Amino acid sequence: KQEVTQIPAALSVPEGENLVLNCSFTDSAIYNLQWFRQDPGKGLTSLLLIQSSQREQTSGRLNASLDKSSGRSTLYIAASQPGDSATYLCAVEAGANNLFFGTGTRLTVIP
Amino acid sequence: NAGVTQTPKFQVLKTGQSMTLQCAQDMNHNSMYWYRQDPGMGLRLIYYSASEGTTDKGEVPNGYNVSRLNKREFSLRLESAAPSQTSVYFCATFGGVQETQYFGPGTRLLVL
User: Fold this and answer.
1) pLDDT > 70: what percent of chain B?
2) How confident is the model at residue A97 (pLDDT cuts 50, 70, 90)?
3) Scanning every residue of chain A, which has its alpha carbon at the shortest distance from the alpha carbon of B106?
4) Contacts of A44 in chain B (CB under 8 A)
5) Cβ A97–B42 below 8 Å, yes or no?
6) Closest Cα partner for A28 from A94, A86, A77?
């Protein structure tokens, strides 16, 4: 069974700092990997989706990379802002309708 | 467009009571999902429906039933609630240009 791990579980950084969130998965046979954002008491919002054939995706200040062979992905956030404070989840799609989620990294950006 | 909506937002049940969680979408997506989210466990798939009239079990289906009433609605029923079913329940759809999942705001369920 696919297992997805996110380290660290929580992270606090001062505003303006660049940061990296990590995600690892045990089975490299994936269709894609997604990064989601979850605000307290809310649902998940998709941030970036990387197909298995891709190495990275970018959206604004966010950049996600994928190294399928080593089972790792990173989410890079540039020039962090207090509005970036949220929980970030990664999920791998291992087959149709088969999405495995990590437990998330809770990010706090301190003004 | 409301996207994915869920009712109720919060519910308290006593052990043994039954209830139905409702989910509706106006995105015209075929696939719909029910997840539960527990601290330290991540989201786990309970049931999914690839299209109207079909449903399949996910990772943790025991204690739940589902109904895909039509393309818009996908409900989750707890016939006899147990404290272990205390969780946050999310409904999601799949589709769109980016072919990703779209989540509702969640239902917080407390079973005493």
Assistant:
1) 99
2) low
3) A43
4) 43, 90, 92, 101, 103
5) no
6) A94
Q: Is the pLDDT of residue B85 over 70?
A: yes
Identify the three-state secondary structure at position A83: helix
Q: Dump pLDDT digits (tens) for B20-38.
A: 999 999 999 999 999 999 9
Residues with Cβ < 8 Å from B2, sequence gap 6 or more? B24, B26
Interface contact A101-B43, CB threshold 8 A: yes
Tokens of A53: 């054939």
Q: Coil, helix or strand for B74?
A: strand
What value does the mean pLDDT of chain B take? Answer: 93
Closest by CA position to A45, among listed B112, B66, B103, B87 = B103
Q: Is the pLDDT of residue B16 over 70?
A: yes
* Nearest-by-CA chain A residue for B89: A43
Please provide the DSSP assignment of A11-80 as one string: EEEETT--EEEEEEES----SEEEEEEE-TTS-EEEEEEEETT-SEEEETTEEEEEETTTTEEEEEE-S-
pLDDT tens by residue, B51-71: 998 999 998 999 999 999 899
Chain B residues lying within 8 Å of A42, measured CB to CB: 105-106
Nearest to B27 by CA among B80, B111, B95: B95
* Bridge partners, B46 (sequence order): none
Tokens of A22: 């990590």
